[in-house]
Amino acid sequence: MRFFSIGIEENNLGLKKSILRKIDETKPEGFIIEEKQAGNLLFINYILLNPYNSGPWNLVREKLQQNIADIITDFILNDMQLPMIERIVRDEFFYFEKEDMKHICREVLATVLGKKDGDSRLSSLKENWRARIRERIIEHLDTNSELIIDGFIRFRLKDFTKDLTQGISGIAEELLIEKEYNEFIKLLRYFVEIQEPKVNEVHVVVEDDRKYVLLDDSYRVINNDVLKELAKEISDKEISYDDLLISSLITIAPSKITIHDCEKIKNTELLNTINKVFRGKVSYEP
Protein backbone atom coordinates (compact mmCIF):
# COMPACT_ATOMS: atom_id res chain seq x y z
CA MET A 1 0.00 0.00 0.00
CA ARG A 2 1.35 3.43 -1.00
CA PHE A 3 1.15 6.02 1.78
CA PHE A 4 3.10 9.06 0.54
CA SER A 5 5.06 10.11 -2.55
CA ILE A 6 7.83 12.68 -2.73
CA GLY A 7 8.45 14.20 -6.17
CA ILE A 8 11.70 15.73 -7.45
CA GLU A 9 11.94 17.65 -10.71
CA GLU A 10 14.37 16.45 -13.37
CA ASN A 11 16.69 19.45 -13.03
CA ASN A 12 17.35 18.45 -9.41
CA LEU A 13 17.93 14.75 -10.00
CA GLY A 14 21.57 15.28 -9.08
CA LEU A 15 20.28 15.48 -5.50
CA LYS A 16 18.42 12.16 -5.78
CA LYS A 17 21.09 10.14 -4.00
CA SER A 18 21.05 12.53 -1.06
CA ILE A 19 17.31 12.37 -0.43
CA LEU A 20 17.15 8.62 -1.10
CA ARG A 21 19.86 8.08 1.49
CA LYS A 22 18.00 10.21 4.04
CA ILE A 23 14.74 8.37 3.31
CA ASP A 24 16.29 4.90 3.41
CA GLU A 25 18.13 5.58 6.68
CA THR A 26 15.02 6.86 8.47
CA LYS A 27 12.06 4.98 6.93
CA PRO A 28 9.82 3.39 9.58
CA GLU A 29 9.78 -0.36 9.99
CA GLY A 30 7.54 -2.17 7.51
CA PHE A 31 8.02 0.31 4.67
CA ILE A 32 9.95 -0.10 1.44
CA ILE A 33 10.92 2.66 -0.99
CA GLU A 34 9.86 2.57 -4.64
CA GLU A 35 11.08 4.91 -7.42
CA LYS A 36 8.87 5.81 -10.37
CA GLN A 37 9.50 8.24 -13.22
CA ALA A 38 6.58 10.35 -14.47
CA GLY A 39 7.50 12.86 -17.17
CA ASN A 40 10.11 15.21 -15.77
CA LEU A 41 9.41 14.07 -12.20
CA LEU A 42 10.89 11.29 -10.14
CA PHE A 43 8.51 10.03 -7.45
CA ILE A 44 9.85 8.32 -4.35
CA ASN A 45 7.01 6.25 -2.90
CA TYR A 46 6.59 4.90 0.63
CA ILE A 47 5.05 1.44 0.33
CA LEU A 48 3.70 -0.33 3.41
CA LEU A 49 4.26 -4.08 2.96
CA ASN A 50 1.71 -5.44 5.43
CA PRO A 51 -0.95 -2.78 5.97
CA TYR A 52 -3.17 -5.03 8.12
CA ASN A 53 -0.40 -5.96 10.57
CA SER A 54 1.04 -2.50 11.17
CA GLY A 55 -1.29 -1.09 13.81
CA PRO A 56 -3.79 1.80 13.53
CA TRP A 57 -3.39 3.55 10.20
CA ASN A 58 -3.78 7.03 11.65
CA LEU A 59 -0.79 6.41 13.94
CA VAL A 60 1.26 4.92 11.11
CA ARG A 61 0.38 7.89 8.89
CA GLU A 62 1.18 10.45 11.60
CA LYS A 63 4.55 8.84 12.36
CA LEU A 64 5.41 8.80 8.66
CA GLN A 65 4.32 12.44 8.29
CA GLN A 66 6.72 13.48 11.04
CA ASN A 67 9.47 11.43 9.45
CA ILE A 68 8.94 12.94 5.98
CA ALA A 69 8.68 16.48 7.42
CA ASP A 70 12.10 16.08 9.08
CA ILE A 71 13.69 14.72 5.89
CA ILE A 72 12.30 17.34 3.50
CA THR A 73 12.98 20.23 5.87
CA ASP A 74 16.60 19.15 6.12
CA PHE A 75 16.72 18.57 2.35
CA ILE A 76 15.39 22.08 1.57
CA LEU A 77 17.64 23.85 4.07
CA ASN A 78 20.80 21.98 3.06
CA ASP A 79 20.77 20.14 -0.27
CA MET A 80 18.39 22.54 -2.07
CA GLN A 81 20.11 25.74 -0.99
CA LEU A 82 22.63 25.91 -3.83
CA PRO A 83 20.09 25.18 -6.62
CA MET A 84 17.72 27.77 -5.11
CA ILE A 85 20.47 30.38 -4.83
CA GLU A 86 21.66 29.71 -8.38
CA ARG A 87 18.12 30.04 -9.76
CA ILE A 88 17.47 33.31 -7.91
CA VAL A 89 20.79 34.79 -9.02
CA ARG A 90 20.16 33.67 -12.61
CA ASP A 91 16.61 35.10 -12.65
CA GLU A 92 17.00 38.26 -10.57
CA PHE A 93 20.62 39.29 -11.14
CA PHE A 94 21.06 38.30 -14.79
CA TYR A 95 22.89 41.57 -15.54
CA PHE A 96 26.02 40.31 -13.76
CA GLU A 97 28.73 38.49 -15.69
CA LYS A 98 28.96 34.73 -15.16
CA GLU A 99 32.01 34.92 -12.89
CA ASP A 100 30.31 37.54 -10.73
CA MET A 101 27.20 35.36 -10.50
CA LYS A 102 29.33 32.44 -9.33
CA HIS A 103 30.98 34.73 -6.77
CA ILE A 104 27.59 35.84 -5.43
CA CYS A 105 26.42 32.21 -5.16
CA ARG A 106 29.55 31.21 -3.25
CA GLU A 107 29.26 34.16 -0.85
CA VAL A 108 25.56 33.56 -0.21
CA LEU A 109 25.97 29.83 0.36
CA ALA A 110 28.92 30.34 2.72
CA THR A 111 26.86 32.84 4.75
CA VAL A 112 23.78 30.59 4.86
CA LEU A 113 25.91 27.64 6.00
CA GLY A 114 27.57 29.77 8.68
CA LYS A 115 31.04 29.51 7.15
CA LYS A 116 31.44 33.29 7.07
CA ASP A 117 29.88 36.35 8.65
CA GLY A 118 27.49 38.33 6.51
CA ASP A 119 23.93 39.52 6.03
CA SER A 120 21.88 38.54 9.13
CA ARG A 121 18.95 37.54 6.90
CA LEU A 122 21.15 34.83 5.42
CA SER A 123 23.13 33.77 8.49
CA SER A 124 19.92 33.22 10.49
CA LEU A 125 17.86 31.83 7.59
CA LYS A 126 18.01 28.17 8.62
CA GLU A 127 17.40 28.91 12.29
CA ASN A 128 14.43 31.17 11.54
CA TRP A 129 12.78 28.89 9.00
CA ARG A 130 13.34 25.28 10.11
CA ALA A 131 10.26 25.03 12.35
CA ARG A 132 8.03 26.93 9.89
CA ILE A 133 9.01 24.77 6.92
CA ARG A 134 8.45 21.59 8.91
CA GLU A 135 5.03 22.76 10.07
CA ARG A 136 3.94 23.62 6.51
CA ILE A 137 5.07 20.22 5.24
CA ILE A 138 2.95 18.49 7.89
CA GLU A 139 -0.02 20.72 6.98
CA HIS A 140 0.40 19.77 3.33
CA LEU A 141 0.59 16.05 4.11
CA ASP A 142 -2.57 16.27 6.21
CA THR A 143 -4.58 16.64 3.00
CA ASN A 144 -2.23 15.35 0.29
CA SER A 145 -0.45 12.07 -0.29
CA GLU A 146 2.00 13.65 -2.75
CA LEU A 147 4.54 16.40 -2.17
CA ILE A 148 6.56 17.71 -5.12
CA ILE A 149 9.48 19.53 -3.51
CA ASP A 150 10.02 22.20 -6.18
CA GLY A 151 6.31 23.00 -6.35
CA PHE A 152 6.08 23.12 -2.56
CA ILE A 153 8.95 25.64 -2.45
CA ARG A 154 7.46 27.65 -5.32
CA PHE A 155 3.93 27.95 -3.87
CA ARG A 156 4.11 27.29 -0.13
CA LEU A 157 7.47 28.90 0.66
CA LYS A 158 7.21 32.19 -1.25
CA ASP A 159 8.09 34.16 1.89
CA PHE A 160 11.11 31.93 2.51
CA THR A 161 12.27 32.53 -1.07
CA LYS A 162 11.69 36.27 -0.56
CA ASP A 163 13.94 36.28 2.52
CA LEU A 164 16.62 34.41 0.59
CA THR A 165 16.31 36.82 -2.36
CA GLN A 166 16.65 39.87 -0.10
CA GLY A 167 19.78 38.40 1.44
CA ILE A 168 21.23 37.69 -1.99
CA SER A 169 20.36 41.25 -3.04
CA GLY A 170 22.48 42.59 -0.17
CA ILE A 171 25.52 40.59 -1.30
CA ALA A 172 24.94 41.55 -4.95
CA GLU A 173 24.82 45.21 -3.92
CA GLU A 174 28.10 44.84 -2.02
CA LEU A 175 29.69 43.38 -5.13
CA LEU A 176 28.41 46.28 -7.26
CA ILE A 177 29.81 48.80 -4.79
CA GLU A 178 33.15 46.97 -4.77
CA LYS A 179 33.30 46.94 -8.58
CA GLU A 180 32.41 50.65 -8.75
CA TYR A 181 35.08 51.40 -6.14
CA ASN A 182 37.70 49.45 -8.11
CA GLU A 183 36.76 51.33 -11.29
CA PHE A 184 37.06 54.60 -9.36
CA ILE A 185 40.52 53.60 -8.10
CA LYS A 186 41.60 52.78 -11.68
CA LEU A 187 40.44 56.21 -12.81
CA LEU A 188 42.32 58.01 -10.02
CA ARG A 189 45.42 55.92 -10.71
CA TYR A 190 45.20 56.93 -14.37
CA PHE A 191 45.02 60.64 -13.44
CA VAL A 192 48.13 60.24 -11.29
CA GLU A 193 50.09 58.31 -13.92
CA ILE A 194 49.51 60.82 -16.74
CA GLN A 195 50.72 63.79 -14.68
CA GLU A 196 54.24 65.02 -14.07
CA PRO A 197 54.94 65.07 -10.32
CA LYS A 198 54.66 68.64 -9.00
CA VAL A 199 56.68 67.60 -5.94
CA ASN A 200 59.04 64.63 -5.76
CA GLU A 201 58.04 63.58 -2.22
CA VAL A 202 55.10 64.57 -0.06
CA HIS A 203 55.10 64.17 3.72
CA VAL A 204 51.60 63.86 5.21
CA VAL A 205 51.44 65.05 8.81
CA VAL A 206 48.27 64.58 10.87
CA GLU A 207 47.50 67.44 13.27
CA ASP A 208 45.62 67.06 16.53
CA ASP A 209 42.40 68.40 14.99
CA ARG A 210 42.69 65.64 12.35
CA LYS A 211 43.53 68.12 9.62
CA TYR A 212 46.39 67.24 7.31
CA VAL A 213 49.49 69.27 6.54
CA LEU A 214 51.43 68.46 3.38
CA LEU A 215 55.18 69.04 3.32
CA ASP A 216 57.58 68.73 0.40
CA ASP A 217 60.88 66.80 0.43
CA SER A 218 62.54 69.76 2.22
CA TYR A 219 59.77 69.70 4.88
CA ARG A 220 58.30 72.99 3.68
CA VAL A 221 54.53 73.41 3.71
CA ILE A 222 53.02 72.86 0.27
CA ASN A 223 50.60 75.72 -0.21
CA ASN A 224 50.19 76.45 -3.91
CA ASP A 225 47.21 78.05 -5.63
CA VAL A 226 45.63 74.77 -6.67
CA LEU A 227 45.62 73.45 -3.10
CA LYS A 228 44.20 76.77 -1.88
CA GLU A 229 41.29 76.33 -4.27
CA LEU A 230 40.77 72.79 -3.03
CA ALA A 231 40.83 73.99 0.56
CA LYS A 232 38.15 76.58 -0.21
CA GLU A 233 35.81 73.78 -1.22
CA ILE A 234 35.66 72.64 2.40
CA SER A 235 33.67 75.75 3.24
CA ASP A 236 31.68 75.76 -0.02
CA LYS A 237 30.65 72.10 -0.02
CA GLU A 238 30.38 69.17 2.33
CA ILE A 239 33.86 67.81 1.58
CA SER A 240 35.73 66.05 4.36
CA TYR A 241 39.40 66.55 5.18
CA ASP A 242 39.94 62.94 4.05
CA ASP A 243 38.52 63.77 0.61
CA LEU A 244 40.63 66.92 0.49
CA LEU A 245 43.76 64.90 1.27
CA ILE A 246 43.08 62.48 -1.59
CA SER A 247 42.33 65.35 -3.98
CA SER A 248 45.50 67.19 -2.95
CA LEU A 249 47.72 64.14 -3.41
CA ILE A 250 46.24 63.42 -6.85
CA THR A 251 46.76 67.07 -7.85
CA ILE A 252 50.40 66.97 -6.75
CA ALA A 253 50.96 63.41 -8.11
CA PRO A 254 54.18 62.90 -6.10
CA SER A 255 56.69 60.15 -6.82
CA LYS A 256 56.71 59.22 -3.15
CA ILE A 257 54.35 59.70 -0.20
CA THR A 258 55.41 59.38 3.43
CA ILE A 259 52.63 59.33 6.01
CA HIS A 260 53.59 60.29 9.56
CA ASP A 261 51.69 59.25 12.69
CA CYS A 262 49.34 57.08 10.63
CA GLU A 263 47.85 55.68 13.85
CA LYS A 264 46.06 59.03 14.19
CA ILE A 265 44.19 58.29 10.96
CA LYS A 266 41.09 56.41 12.10
CA ASN A 267 39.72 56.02 8.58
CA THR A 268 41.47 52.84 7.44
CA GLU A 269 39.63 53.04 4.10
CA LEU A 270 41.45 56.32 3.44
CA LEU A 271 44.81 54.59 3.86
CA ASN A 272 43.68 51.70 1.65
CA THR A 273 42.63 54.13 -1.08
CA ILE A 274 45.94 56.03 -0.95
CA ASN A 275 47.84 52.73 -1.15
CA LYS A 276 45.79 51.55 -4.13
CA VAL A 277 46.01 54.82 -6.07
CA PHE A 278 49.71 55.38 -5.36
CA ARG A 279 50.71 51.71 -5.31
CA GLY A 280 54.35 51.17 -4.42
CA LYS A 281 54.86 54.86 -3.61
CA VAL A 282 53.59 54.99 -0.01
CA SER A 283 55.64 54.52 3.18
CA TYR A 284 54.94 55.16 6.84
CA GLU A 285 56.94 56.87 9.59
CA PRO A 286 56.11 56.92 13.29
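the 2nd protein, sequnce then structure:
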Amino acid sequence: MVRKRKRKKSGIRIFAALIFMFVLVVSAYTSISILGSHQIFKKEYDDNTASYRSVKVTPNSTEDRIILPNPSIVPEPTISEASESLNSPNAILIRLTDDTVLMQKNSEDIVYPASLTKMMTTIVAIENLPDLTAEIELTNAVFEGLYEADASMAGFEPGERVKAIDLLYGIMLPSGAECCIGLADQIAGSEQNFVELMNQKAAELGMINTHFENTTGLHDENHYTNVKDLSVLLSYALKNDTFREIFTSAKHFTLPTNRHPEGMTFYSTMFKGLGNQTIMDGEIIGGKTGYTEEAGLCLASLAEVGEDEYILISAGAKGNHRTEQYNITDALVVYNSIGK
Protein backbone atom coordinates (compact mmCIF):
# COMPACT_ATOMS: atom_id res chain seq x y z
CA MET A 1 0.00 0.00 0.00
CA VAL A 2 2.84 2.38 0.78
CA ARG A 3 4.57 1.52 -2.49
CA LYS A 4 1.42 2.39 -4.45
CA ARG A 5 1.23 5.81 -2.80
CA LYS A 6 4.90 6.51 -3.59
CA ARG A 7 4.43 5.55 -7.21
CA LYS A 8 1.39 7.83 -7.44
CA LYS A 9 3.32 10.82 -5.96
CA SER A 10 6.22 10.18 -8.36
CA GLY A 11 3.89 10.28 -11.34
CA ILE A 12 2.41 13.57 -10.23
CA ARG A 13 5.89 15.11 -9.92
CA ILE A 14 6.88 13.96 -13.43
CA PHE A 15 3.64 15.35 -14.89
CA ALA A 16 4.15 18.74 -13.15
CA ALA A 17 7.74 18.90 -14.40
CA LEU A 18 6.60 18.27 -17.97
CA ILE A 19 4.03 21.06 -17.73
CA PHE A 20 6.65 23.47 -16.33
CA MET A 21 9.08 22.66 -19.16
CA PHE A 22 6.32 23.20 -21.72
CA VAL A 23 5.52 26.64 -20.26
CA LEU A 24 9.21 27.59 -20.38
CA VAL A 25 9.50 26.57 -24.03
CA VAL A 26 6.39 28.57 -25.02
CA SER A 27 7.59 31.66 -23.10
CA ALA A 28 11.03 31.51 -24.71
CA TYR A 29 9.54 31.20 -28.21
CA THR A 30 7.20 34.15 -27.60
CA SER A 31 10.05 36.35 -26.33
CA ILE A 32 12.19 35.55 -29.35
CA SER A 33 9.30 36.35 -31.74
CA ILE A 34 8.58 39.68 -30.05
CA LEU A 35 12.24 40.64 -30.05
CA GLY A 36 12.59 39.74 -33.70
CA SER A 37 9.55 41.81 -34.63
CA HIS A 38 10.88 44.74 -32.60
CA GLN A 39 14.21 44.56 -34.43
CA ILE A 40 12.47 44.50 -37.82
CA PHE A 41 10.32 47.50 -36.85
CA LYS A 42 13.40 49.40 -35.72
CA LYS A 43 15.23 48.64 -38.95
CA GLU A 44 12.29 49.70 -41.12
CA TYR A 45 11.86 52.91 -39.09
CA ASP A 46 15.52 53.80 -39.32
CA ASP A 47 15.68 52.96 -43.04
CA ASN A 48 12.88 55.43 -43.66
CA THR A 49 14.15 58.16 -41.36
CA ALA A 50 17.46 59.45 -42.67
CA SER A 51 17.87 61.99 -39.90
CA TYR A 52 17.95 59.29 -37.22
CA ARG A 53 20.85 56.99 -36.41
CA SER A 54 20.56 53.23 -36.49
CA VAL A 55 20.20 51.54 -33.11
CA LYS A 56 20.59 47.78 -32.73
CA VAL A 57 18.08 46.48 -30.23
CA THR A 58 19.33 43.69 -27.96
CA PRO A 59 18.00 42.28 -24.72
CA ASN A 60 18.77 44.56 -21.77
CA SER A 61 20.21 47.19 -24.12
CA THR A 62 20.39 50.66 -22.54
CA GLU A 63 19.89 52.18 -26.00
CA ASP A 64 16.50 50.55 -26.38
CA ARG A 65 14.92 53.62 -24.85
CA ILE A 66 15.15 56.45 -27.39
CA ILE A 67 16.47 57.12 -30.87
CA LEU A 68 18.37 60.39 -30.96
CA PRO A 69 18.63 62.66 -34.03
CA ASN A 70 22.02 62.59 -35.72
CA PRO A 71 23.53 66.03 -35.01
CA SER A 72 25.64 65.81 -38.17
CA ILE A 73 22.51 65.94 -40.35
CA VAL A 74 20.77 69.34 -40.33
CA PRO A 75 17.59 69.23 -42.45
CA GLU A 76 16.71 72.25 -44.58
CA PRO A 77 13.50 74.02 -43.52
CA THR A 78 10.29 73.27 -45.38
CA ILE A 79 8.57 76.10 -47.22
CA SER A 80 6.07 76.56 -44.39
CA GLU A 81 8.89 76.63 -41.83
CA ALA A 82 10.81 79.10 -43.99
CA SER A 83 7.85 81.47 -44.18
CA GLU A 84 7.63 81.60 -40.39
CA SER A 85 11.28 82.58 -40.06
CA LEU A 86 11.32 85.38 -42.65
CA ASN A 87 12.46 88.88 -41.79
CA SER A 88 9.96 90.18 -44.35
CA PRO A 89 6.40 90.48 -42.99
CA ASN A 90 4.96 90.18 -46.51
CA ALA A 91 5.94 87.55 -49.08
CA ILE A 92 4.65 85.28 -51.83
CA LEU A 93 6.36 82.41 -53.68
CA ILE A 94 5.06 81.18 -57.04
CA ARG A 95 6.18 78.36 -59.33
CA LEU A 96 6.02 79.86 -62.81
CA THR A 97 5.71 76.50 -64.56
CA ASP A 98 2.08 76.17 -63.51
CA ASP A 99 1.47 79.45 -61.61
CA THR A 100 1.12 77.55 -58.34
CA VAL A 101 1.30 79.65 -55.17
CA LEU A 102 3.59 77.68 -52.85
CA MET A 103 3.80 80.13 -49.96
CA GLN A 104 2.01 83.28 -48.87
CA LYS A 105 2.62 85.53 -45.91
CA ASN A 106 0.30 88.52 -45.54
CA SER A 107 0.33 88.65 -49.34
CA GLU A 108 -2.76 90.86 -49.62
CA ASP A 109 -1.76 93.43 -47.00
CA ILE A 110 -1.12 96.88 -48.41
CA VAL A 111 2.58 97.79 -48.65
CA TYR A 112 4.72 100.53 -50.18
CA PRO A 113 6.63 99.10 -53.16
CA ALA A 114 9.61 101.49 -53.19
CA SER A 115 11.75 100.74 -56.26
CA LEU A 116 9.81 97.57 -57.11
CA THR A 117 7.63 100.22 -58.80
CA LYS A 118 10.27 100.33 -61.51
CA MET A 119 9.24 96.90 -62.80
CA MET A 120 5.99 98.52 -63.95
CA THR A 121 7.82 101.59 -65.25
CA THR A 122 10.09 99.35 -67.31
CA ILE A 123 7.48 97.05 -68.85
CA VAL A 124 5.18 99.98 -69.73
CA ALA A 125 8.13 101.82 -71.32
CA ILE A 126 9.15 98.75 -73.34
CA GLU A 127 5.61 98.29 -74.63
CA ASN A 128 5.37 101.96 -75.66
CA LEU A 129 8.79 102.45 -77.24
CA PRO A 130 8.74 101.96 -81.02
CA ASP A 131 12.54 101.88 -81.21
CA LEU A 132 14.77 100.76 -78.33
CA THR A 133 17.83 102.19 -80.09
CA ALA A 134 16.34 105.69 -80.30
CA GLU A 135 18.35 108.43 -78.60
CA ILE A 136 16.68 110.36 -75.79
CA GLU A 137 17.95 113.60 -74.28
CA LEU A 138 17.77 113.99 -70.50
CA THR A 139 16.77 117.62 -69.92
CA ASN A 140 17.45 119.65 -66.80
CA ALA A 141 13.79 119.20 -65.85
CA VAL A 142 14.33 115.43 -65.58
CA PHE A 143 16.61 115.90 -62.59
CA GLU A 144 14.48 118.41 -60.67
CA GLY A 145 13.90 117.30 -57.09
CA LEU A 146 15.62 113.92 -57.46
CA TYR A 147 18.80 114.78 -55.58
CA GLU A 148 16.81 116.56 -52.87
CA ALA A 149 14.64 113.45 -52.44
CA ASP A 150 17.76 111.29 -52.16
CA ALA A 151 16.58 109.20 -55.11
CA SER A 152 18.90 106.51 -56.40
CA MET A 153 20.57 107.50 -59.67
CA ALA A 154 22.21 105.66 -62.56
CA GLY A 155 24.79 108.41 -63.14
CA PHE A 156 23.59 110.19 -66.28
CA GLU A 157 23.84 113.99 -66.46
CA PRO A 158 21.60 116.85 -67.62
CA GLY A 159 21.87 117.30 -71.37
CA GLU A 160 23.08 113.73 -71.94
CA ARG A 161 21.75 111.90 -75.00
CA VAL A 162 21.19 108.24 -74.17
CA LYS A 163 19.86 105.23 -76.07
CA ALA A 164 16.45 104.10 -74.82
CA ILE A 165 17.74 100.59 -74.13
CA ASP A 166 20.47 101.99 -71.87
CA LEU A 167 17.87 103.98 -69.94
CA LEU A 168 15.89 100.76 -69.40
CA TYR A 169 18.97 99.04 -68.00
CA GLY A 170 19.60 102.18 -65.94
CA ILE A 171 16.16 101.80 -64.35
CA MET A 172 16.46 98.14 -63.41
CA LEU A 173 20.11 97.59 -62.49
CA PRO A 174 21.30 100.69 -60.55
CA SER A 175 17.67 101.80 -60.02
CA GLY A 176 18.20 105.16 -61.70
CA ALA A 177 15.38 107.65 -61.07
CA GLU A 178 16.59 109.98 -63.85
CA CYS A 179 16.11 107.12 -66.33
CA CYS A 180 12.48 106.71 -65.22
CA ILE A 181 11.66 110.39 -65.66
CA GLY A 182 13.55 110.64 -68.96
CA LEU A 183 11.63 107.75 -70.51
CA ALA A 184 8.31 108.98 -69.07
CA ASP A 185 8.78 112.43 -70.58
CA GLN A 186 9.76 110.95 -73.94
CA ILE A 187 6.86 108.49 -74.13
CA ALA A 188 3.98 110.37 -72.51
CA GLY A 189 5.10 114.02 -72.32
CA SER A 190 5.30 114.04 -68.51
CA GLU A 191 5.72 111.73 -65.57
CA GLN A 192 2.09 112.11 -64.54
CA ASN A 193 0.85 111.17 -68.01
CA PHE A 194 3.09 108.11 -67.92
CA VAL A 195 1.78 107.16 -64.47
CA GLU A 196 -1.69 107.02 -66.00
CA LEU A 197 -0.37 104.36 -68.38
CA MET A 198 1.05 102.48 -65.40
CA ASN A 199 -2.29 102.48 -63.60
CA GLN A 200 -4.07 101.41 -66.78
CA LYS A 201 -1.70 98.45 -67.09
CA ALA A 202 -2.26 97.56 -63.44
CA ALA A 203 -6.02 97.50 -64.06
CA GLU A 204 -5.56 95.34 -67.16
CA LEU A 205 -3.54 92.83 -65.15
CA GLY A 206 -6.11 92.70 -62.34
CA MET A 207 -3.87 94.41 -59.79
CA ILE A 208 -6.90 95.64 -57.88
CA ASN A 209 -5.02 96.71 -54.75
CA THR A 210 -2.40 98.80 -56.54
CA HIS A 211 -2.17 102.50 -57.28
CA PHE A 212 0.85 104.42 -58.59
CA GLU A 213 1.64 108.10 -58.07
CA ASN A 214 5.11 108.21 -59.65
CA THR A 215 7.52 106.20 -61.80
CA THR A 216 10.32 105.88 -59.24
CA GLY A 217 8.79 104.48 -56.08
CA LEU A 218 9.62 107.52 -53.97
CA HIS A 219 7.32 107.45 -50.96
CA ASP A 220 3.77 108.71 -51.32
CA GLU A 221 0.84 107.57 -49.17
CA ASN A 222 -1.24 107.10 -52.32
CA HIS A 223 1.45 104.97 -53.96
CA TYR A 224 0.77 101.43 -52.76
CA THR A 225 0.31 97.77 -53.70
CA ASN A 226 0.66 94.30 -52.17
CA VAL A 227 3.06 91.46 -52.88
CA LYS A 228 0.32 89.41 -54.55
CA ASP A 229 -0.27 92.15 -57.12
CA LEU A 230 3.47 92.52 -57.65
CA SER A 231 3.74 88.80 -58.36
CA VAL A 232 1.09 89.21 -61.07
CA LEU A 233 3.12 92.07 -62.54
CA LEU A 234 6.42 90.20 -62.52
CA SER A 235 4.91 87.02 -63.93
CA TYR A 236 3.48 89.07 -66.81
CA ALA A 237 6.62 91.14 -67.42
CA LEU A 238 8.91 88.10 -67.58
CA LYS A 239 7.04 86.93 -70.67
CA ASN A 240 8.56 89.92 -72.49
CA ASP A 241 12.00 88.98 -73.86
CA THR A 242 13.48 92.46 -73.42
CA PHE A 243 12.27 92.75 -69.83
CA ARG A 244 13.55 89.26 -68.98
CA GLU A 245 16.96 90.02 -70.50
CA ILE A 246 17.28 93.17 -68.40
CA PHE A 247 15.87 91.59 -65.22
CA THR A 248 18.37 88.71 -65.36
CA SER A 249 21.46 90.83 -66.14
CA ALA A 250 24.12 91.25 -63.46
CA LYS A 251 25.75 94.16 -65.32
CA HIS A 252 25.40 96.22 -68.47
CA PHE A 253 27.80 98.32 -70.53
CA THR A 254 26.16 101.42 -72.03
CA LEU A 255 26.98 102.84 -75.42
CA PRO A 256 29.14 106.00 -75.53
CA THR A 257 27.28 109.28 -75.05
CA ASN A 258 28.12 112.95 -75.38
CA ARG A 259 28.81 113.09 -71.62
CA HIS A 260 30.31 109.62 -71.19
CA PRO A 261 32.34 108.95 -74.35
CA GLU A 262 33.56 105.62 -72.97
CA GLY A 263 30.13 104.59 -71.80
CA MET A 264 29.27 103.44 -68.27
CA THR A 265 28.91 100.11 -66.51
CA PHE A 266 25.77 99.37 -64.51
CA TYR A 267 25.64 96.69 -61.81
CA SER A 268 22.49 95.06 -60.52
CA THR A 269 21.81 96.04 -56.91
CA MET A 270 20.39 92.57 -56.29
CA PHE A 271 23.39 90.67 -57.62
CA LYS A 272 25.71 92.98 -55.67
CA GLY A 273 23.78 92.19 -52.49
CA LEU A 274 23.73 88.48 -53.30
CA GLY A 275 27.50 88.29 -53.73
CA ASN A 276 28.77 84.72 -53.76
CA GLN A 277 25.80 83.30 -51.86
CA THR A 278 24.07 80.45 -53.67
CA ILE A 279 21.09 78.16 -53.27
CA MET A 280 20.91 74.37 -53.36
CA ASP A 281 19.92 72.66 -56.62
CA GLY A 282 19.70 75.95 -58.53
CA GLU A 283 20.47 79.66 -58.70
CA ILE A 284 18.89 83.06 -58.37
CA ILE A 285 18.98 84.39 -61.92
CA GLY A 286 17.37 87.81 -61.65
CA GLY A 287 15.91 90.42 -59.39
CA LYS A 288 15.07 93.97 -58.42
CA THR A 289 15.62 95.45 -54.98
CA GLY A 290 13.72 98.28 -53.36
CA TYR A 291 14.07 100.41 -50.26
CA THR A 292 12.62 103.45 -48.60
CA GLU A 293 12.36 104.09 -44.89
CA GLU A 294 8.60 103.55 -45.05
CA ALA A 295 8.71 100.47 -47.31
CA GLY A 296 11.64 98.70 -45.70
CA LEU A 297 13.82 96.30 -47.68
CA CYS A 298 11.95 94.78 -50.62
CA LEU A 299 12.89 92.27 -53.31
CA ALA A 300 11.40 90.75 -56.43
CA SER A 301 13.48 87.80 -57.61
CA LEU A 302 13.54 84.95 -60.11
CA ALA A 303 15.22 81.61 -59.45
CA GLU A 304 15.76 78.29 -61.17
CA VAL A 305 15.49 75.32 -58.81
CA GLY A 306 15.66 71.89 -60.39
CA GLU A 307 13.74 72.07 -63.64
CA ASP A 308 11.35 74.85 -62.61
CA GLU A 309 11.39 78.64 -62.31
CA TYR A 310 10.08 80.45 -59.25
CA ILE A 311 9.42 84.08 -58.36
CA LEU A 312 9.48 85.47 -54.85
CA ILE A 313 8.21 88.91 -53.85
CA SER A 314 8.96 90.16 -50.35
CA ALA A 315 8.47 93.52 -48.66
CA GLY A 316 8.86 95.32 -45.36
CA ALA A 317 12.04 93.76 -43.97
CA LYS A 318 13.86 95.83 -41.37
CA GLY A 319 17.21 97.34 -42.21
CA ASN A 320 18.58 99.65 -44.88
CA HIS A 321 21.41 99.86 -47.42
CA ARG A 322 24.02 99.82 -44.65
CA THR A 323 22.70 96.80 -42.75
CA GLU A 324 22.52 93.14 -43.66
CA GLN A 325 20.28 92.78 -46.70
CA TYR A 326 17.48 90.83 -45.05
CA ASN A 327 15.41 90.83 -48.24
CA ILE A 328 18.14 88.81 -49.95
CA THR A 329 18.66 86.62 -46.88
CA ASP A 330 14.95 85.77 -47.00
CA ALA A 331 15.18 84.83 -50.67
CA LEU A 332 18.01 82.40 -49.95
CA VAL A 333 16.03 80.77 -47.13
CA VAL A 334 12.88 80.37 -49.21
CA TYR A 335 14.55 79.07 -52.37
CA ASN A 336 16.57 76.60 -50.30
CA SER A 337 13.36 75.27 -48.77
CA ILE A 338 11.83 74.27 -52.11
CA GLY A 339 11.39 70.52 -52.40
CA LYS A 340 12.55 69.84 -48.82
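Confidence is low (pLDDT under 50) at residues 1-9, 28-76. Residues 2-47 form the longest helix (46 residues).
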